[in-house]
Design brief:
The chain folds into 2 domains: 178 residues, HUPs (Rossmann fold), CATH 3.40.50.620; 93 residues, Pantoate-beta-alanine ligase, C-terminal domain (Pantoate--beta-alanine Ligase, Chain: A,domain 2, 2-Layer Sandwich). The chain is built from 11 helices and 9 strands. Keywords: ATP-binding, Cytoplasm, Ligase, Nucleotide-binding, Pantothenate biosynthesis.
């Protein structure tokens, strides 16, 4: 892997209209690039100027959760690179790859307004040239098995292997100093943190807190798939977690609290995939609370065909 050295000295060119002077906001227009050589040129230029490089990976269909990571990167870094790439390797055969929302023009406007420096917008062949669009047909797999088979990994076999394989590839291309991941997808976050730690990658993983709608629903690109009635019900997944945490901190037994929470969601029309408590670092499911280690509640449930996930720390109240 080449995560620390430059690759060439020819500066790439962004699409017409994306370079030039500063816009109405006073910020330089975002530079949109689509190839690895262009990305390498941006890295070279950043290093020559002494910039700290921050990287926010996304699959597009951006919401305030993504943009809060961009804001955090802008606070801490000189050059902010955001990627938009819907990764087929992490979608199962019955999942929503084809229907996953794609709103590129809107996303670019949002990123430019938040001061993103560069958007890496590659097509499939740039990332996986000549490869079929499945993990099984791709030559190299990366896996973090001790964190990938529980929680979402139980019902989405191969999902995290596809996610981490593509993520490592992008980290190798971008070569950032810091990369930004949200706590809403906490299992994904812990897998990336473990990947970086185990392989000694020269990048710091920075956590961003879960951003929520005013009614408590965790922001997600998939929320767009909720019809009106389902959207009104969806925040109950957050409310149930809040109520469960309060009961646990009052001393109620964990199995009793979790069973009641699952029943409550089922009564509201959710198809509960899991609602469990896990040790935060190892993601090991627990049956009793140990207040000497961080414990987190994790939930996944389907509501009228839309899969929702959420999580919440139990052993201390989030600031």
């Amino acid at each position: 892997m080449d995560l620390g050295r430059g690759r060439g000295h020819h500066r790439g060119r962004a699409p017409a209209g994306r370079r030039g002077g500063r816009g109405e906001t006073g910020r330089a227009p975002v530079r949109v690039i689509s190839t690895a050589p262009e990305l390498a040129a941006e890295w070279d230029a950043g290093r020559l100027s002494g910039s700290v490089i921050g990287y926010v990976p996304t699959m597009g269909a951006l919401h305030e959760g993504h943009l809060s990571l961009v804001d955090l990167a802008r606070e801490q870094c000189d050059l902010v690179i955001c990627s938009i790439f819907v990764n087929p390797l992490q979608f199962g055969p019955d999942e929503d790859f084809d229907s996953y929302p794609r709103t590129v023009e809107r996303d670019l406007k949002l990123l430019e307004a938040r001061g993103t420096t560069v958007v890496f917008l590659p097509d499939w062949d740039e990332i996986f040239p000549g490869r079929a669009r499945t993990l099984q047909d791709f030559g190299t797999h990366v896996s973090v098995p001790r964190l990938s088979h529980q929680l979402c990994g139980r019902t989405r076999p191969g999902h995290f292997d596809g996610m981490v394989t593509e993520s490592l590839l992008f980290l190798n291309l971008v070569r950032p100093d810091r990369t930004y991941w949200g706590e809403k997808d906490f299992q994904q976050l812990r897998i990336i943190e473990t990947l970086v730690q185990d392989l000694r990658l020269p990048v710091r993983v920075v956590r961003g807190v879960t951003r929520r709608e005013p009614d408590g629903l965790a922001m997600s690109s998939r929320n767009k798939g909720l019809l009106f009635d389902a959207r009104a019900v969806a925040p109950h997944i957050h409310r149930v977690l809040l109520q469960s945490r309060a009961r646990l901190l009052d001393g109620d037994p964990l199995p009793t609290v979790l069973a009641a929470a699952r029943d409550c969601l089922t009564e509201r029309g959710f198809e509960v995939e899991y609602l469990v408590a896990c040790e935060e670092e190892s993601l090991t499911e627990v049956r009793t609370l140990d207040f000497h280690a961080p414990i987190r509640l994790f939930a996944a449930a389907h509501l009228e065909g839309v899969r929702l996930i959420d999580n919440m720390r139990v052993t201390e109240v989030a600031p």
